[in-house]
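ok so I'm stuck.
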Amino acid sequence: MRRVGRRCRRCRPRSSPSSAEDKDMTSKHTLHHPRVLGVAVALAAACLAPPASAGTLRIAASPAGGAGAVNAAAGERAFTIDNVGPGTLGAMRIVSDAAHAVDCAGTTVRGAGFATTAALAAGDGVRCVARPTTQARQRNASIVVLAVDDNGAAVSRSFSFMQPAAITPAQGIAVLAAGGIFNDGNNNGLLEAGETISYHYSVLNLGTLALSGLVVTDLEGVVGCSQTTLAVGAWTDCTRVHTITAAEQSATMVFNQVDLTGSASNGDPVSAGDFVLTQNLGGNAGIRVFKSPLLFDDIDASGYASAGDIVEYTFVVKNDNAQALTTVDLVEDDPSHIDGPIVCDPTTLGSQPFAGLGVGTLQSNDIVLCSAQHTLTAAEAAAGVANNLVEAGGQPGVGARVYGTGASAVLIPTAADVSVDKALTGESGSMPGVAEPGETLTYTITLSNAGAANAFNVGVVDPLDPNVTFVSASNGGTLSLNTVTWSGLTVPGNGTLTLTVTVTVVDPIPLGTTQVLNLGYVAGTTPPNCTANPLPPACAVTPTQPTPRLQVTKTASTTQVDPGASLTYTVTVANVGSVVANNVVISDPIPAGIASFAWTCTGSGGATCANASGSGAINETIAVFPAGGQLVYTIVAQLTTNATGNLLNTVSVTPDQITVCMPGATPGPCDATVVVAVRAPPARVPTTDQWALLLMALALVALAWRQHGRALR
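replied:
not stuck anymore, here's the structure
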């Protein structure tokens, strides 16, 4: 109905031309422009015919995507396109910016089929999902939904969705709000080559950091803006006049994607965008709204959004077309998503008074800023996201009320969880894995964050062994009282951070020193117990003299086996070093799916089996395992009749002294694993049923009778 008022106004009788020139102009338009005459006839018909009840577009939050699973962490957003008017909306079309794609369900909420250009009946809706097309999803999603109502009028609804990858106390946030006014030279409502569109772009800094290097691009390229830097809270306008091309006239609409790029004062990139669509008979009134979240109060000082923190939303409401709008309002889709009423500034960015929501007026291309706060709940933290959607509305002087939709999502990551792993990764000596006098050793500390949130201000402590001297440390590590420390580190969510420390072994090494110990742990936590067995991953123990080097392998006679069958495992344990290993425990428990073990043992190279044979699980202790010695266990394993899946069999070898496992030169204990797949049993023919047996007997009798008949012939 947006165009009905204008059409009827054109149908009113005009006064007589005031001059011959006016009469001549009227005559020319009547006689030589049949296209204009056709439009006039159509407008007259619209005035004479009673208007049909029109459909009304609305975009709302969706409890489920309806077009596949929704991954909020990946920047996806579910929403519903509803027809809340009494009439049908036809020729539905959904247009998004190039950085996003929209997928909608194949059926509507009421079960009707839905596809592009489909109709949406009164009271029906369709669920859709907006998805980023690339992993770099800093830009907000800009979507326009188009339709035609029962009166033939073009209707549209803009939808902006903002979701920063994370919100932090110090953050650069930009919003770009666009508008376009069609300069209709002959007032026929149709886009024609040579006519123009005046675009107006507002760029706002709504973050806590200054922005610089700002560049705006649109359908014609880079836009000349008066400012390329913005202080916190500052804003600027950019403009472009676009001349409609013949191709755009044929398409009956003009698409204009507007993008903003730049950087915050901390070096992080910032981006924003909007999408303006101008179409035939699209009217000259419109409104759009952006909802920008900011971590207003980080209650727990975690550096990221979490339950109990306070988020502040800034609503950017723009009149994006020619007509002034009255009774401008904002309505939350779910009022529980904000803690109190939305409050608007008393003055617009254009220095005009704004009386408040529901009564305020917004002039063409002007913006009013509003705000509300929300305390993140435990339920939102459990869901990992706090969603919010708002609808802006305004009444133009001519036509129906216009609406725009804005949404945001605040990701609430799982808490940071940092663990430490330490390993010897570099050495200058001649014996790998041995700390030699005067040798340089390099240790690598790997910090792993199992949480989705970044871990900020992480400290690491690395007490050095008294038998080494400090050389260097990466990432700003410093030495004090023979301890290397790091502070202010950031470990990315679901990521790692690597540190290194380099030391030199003292020369000579004091008598009785058997190892060099190096450990690391997160500041404020309990240091690991480096005497535990197995050795904690945060401990790196390097022997100062040659140590036993054991190598263990395990093989199976087959890679697949049937339930109830048997197979043979071969376990080989060898001392490939030059030092005797003492009290070596060889353990091979019976895994699930195997009923029994029967095994034999043979030794060579001076190694002697504790027992030559046995049954059940292997748990043997070799008191003295000489260098160059080898033991081979041959194990016959009997499977259970109901064994399924994969048989996982592991043997472990543990001496009572520091040992290096070869060939990887890793700390003991040493182990080896082999996997054997159990075949699924074949399907059985049910032969025990009495009727089945009777049928088989009759078949055999028939076969015997047939053969008997052949013999008689």
